[in-house]
Amino acid sequence: MFMENAVIGISFGGKTLMAGKVKTGRIEKSITRKINNKAPEDEILAEEIINEVKDDEVVGIGIGVPGLVDVEKGIVYRVQNIPSWREVHIKEILEDQLGLKVYVNNDANCFAIGETYFGETAGYENSIGLIIGAGVGAGIIFKGHLYSGTNYGAGEFGDIPYRDETYEYYLNNAYFEYKYNIAAGTFIHRAKMKDKIAQAIFELYGADLGNLIKTILFTIDPEIVVIGGPLLKAFPYFEKSMWEKVRTFPYKQAIDKLKIVASKQEDIAVLGAAALYFDAQNHSLKK
Amino acid sequence: MNGTLIGVDLGGTKVAAGKINGSELGEVIYKLIPTNNNDPWDIINVLVEVIEQLFDKFVVGIGIGVPGLVDRNEDIVYEIQNIPSWKEIHLKSILETHFRVPVYIDNDANCFALGESRFGKGKDENDFVGLTLGTGMGGGIIKDGFLLSDAHCGSGEFGNIPYLNSIYEDYCSGKFFMKKFNMKGERLAEAAAQDDVVALRAFEEFGYHLGNAIKTIKLAVDPRKVIIGGSVAQAHEYFKISMWKSILNFPFPKTIRDFDVIFSDIKYIAILGATSLYLDKIKQRSVKEQTIKSN
After folding, report:
1. SS3 at position A68
2. Which residues of chain B does A284 touch, with a Cβ-Cβ cutoff of 8 Å?
3. Residue B80, Cα to own-chain centre: how many angstroms?
4. Which residues of chain A have a CB within 8 Å of the CB of B255?
5. Rounded to whole angstroms, how far apart are CA atoms B223 and A254?
6. What pLDDT is stored for residue B159 in this prediction?
7. How far is CA B151 from the centre of its chain?
8. Which fold has domain B124-263?
9. Inter-chain contact B152–A216, Cβ cutoff 8 Å?
10. Which band of pLDDT confidence, cut at 50, 70 and 90, is reported for residue A286?
């Protein structure tokens, strides 16, 4: 429903900002900008970036940020790499400027709803979109809609205590550098070259990720988990050990039916941000 | 609501059932489950017998809580702890054919949560997690006043989440006291009441681990409240302080302000919760009808 409408999706990466006009599941035009993270608050997401992809067809805007968001009020509290953003009332500001409905959410929730509208979890009622990379977070979909918890804090699986730390500690990009002094990307490259040590390291990674997925199964019980984020590139090297760990889940029937898949949409961050608009429209219609 | 409901709690060793009219629970009856049951019908027959004892023409529905997984779409009971003979039992259709009233089945910990939302401390709360701490640890998630519609009734199984060198259940249920102190939680609670230092320290440690479990629940599900029941919950005065200390060490402190953990000890909550399955379905249907009308 409403999918024929054109919506602008905006995604904040670590260092770049991408805005795209999304229509019928495709990005019709897009623009990518470097974020000047030292710029003052109001210069970072300027109206002009949106105007470059906006036209008369556009009915709304969705924004995904890697940070803490008050979804209801559309306030962004904290964003990775942008210190000047402390409490930005982004929804209010843009709605006033543009006269369009604006929805804001964190990147993991955008990813999850994007996959439901435009990707791997389409057609599933209950799914999880799990992002591994700079941070570790997930979006939860129930009955085809974003589930956000009472403070919009649900799906923060990365912060769950694990071993002597948290899941995020062991599963994020920086862990490789911290532990081995070698960047995650280098390990991925080496694993591709059949380097035994790199492959062994991703095997360990898969076991930890498998424990996280088990935790998700015990808490949320989804039909399918879709994985995205920068570390997805290592999927072939951790997939096996991940499944080995997941299969230790005590309910065999649930595991036989469970699907764990890799995201295939390259532009899922922008598509997912746009999907916020569709989710809000369809949800309020149901209510 | 008009009519009587039967609630059944299928445990690993016995079946307990009761009849409820309004909010009045009648006599509760028990029947032991035959050990060495190789034939799945051994236990189905016990269930049928127990329900038959309570059944009369005023009964309009039956709810059953089972310690395992249920397929929500097909109403098939998959895996039940301690009852290995049950594999893919079409329990709903078997019982509906026999009794000719609607039968609803769900995981027992989900029934606990639903029971708290209908008859207990969750009456005025739309978003909470119900947690039972007894010989094991289980939970159920209530969202917007309804049980979460997950894939296999398996959500909220927080006890099985990996924790330290094992799982939360080993640290947050009676198992913790058995494993570490070789004593039942009830015995330790008695000792704690006498200011026994070892017992008090045991509960303090227990509270620390339980606090971590609650943090995990908050991070995963983000409920407004956690309502804790089960036998261990009754000793809460001995672990409450260390539990909160552990929870307050939360990465998003702002969201702790309107979060609460409360303790409940409603009798026969498992049976009450099972009858709530029926009420939950009725409520869902009426919400759906209203939505259709308003569109």
Report:
1. strand
2. none
3. 14
4. 151, 153
5. 25
6. 94
7. 17
8. Nucleotidyltransferase; domain 5 (3.30.420)
9. no
10. low
Facing A250 at nearest CB: one of B149, B160, B212: B160
Given this model, what pLDDT does residue A287 score? 44
Q: What is the CATH number of domain A124-262?
A: 3.30.420.40
Q: How far is B183 from chain A (nearest CA, A)?
A: 27
| Token couple for B292 | 């259709």
To the nearest whole angstrom, how far is the Cα of B50 from the nearest Cα of chain A? 28
What is the model's pTM? 0.85
Nearest to A214 among B79, B149, B162 (CB): B162
- Min Cα separation B59/chain A (Å): 32
CATH class name, domain B4-111+268-294: alpha beta
Contact call for B219 and A153, based on CB within 8 A: yes
Nearby residues of B95 by Cβ (< 8 Å), 6 or more positions away: B47, B48, B51, B62, B64, B103
With an 8 Å Cβ cutoff, are A149 and B163 in contact? no
- Tokens 């008369």 locate to A56
Reported ipTM: the value is: 0.80
Residue B227 pLDDT greater than 70, yes or no:
yes
Distance of CA A252 to CAs A232, A248, A255, B148, B236, Å? 26, 9, 5, 21, 35
Q: How far is A161 from chain B (nearest CA, A)?
A: 7
CA angle centred on A277, ends A271 and A279, rounded to 5°: 95
Backbone conformation region of residue B144, classed left if phi is above 0, alpha if psi is from -120 to 50, else beta: left
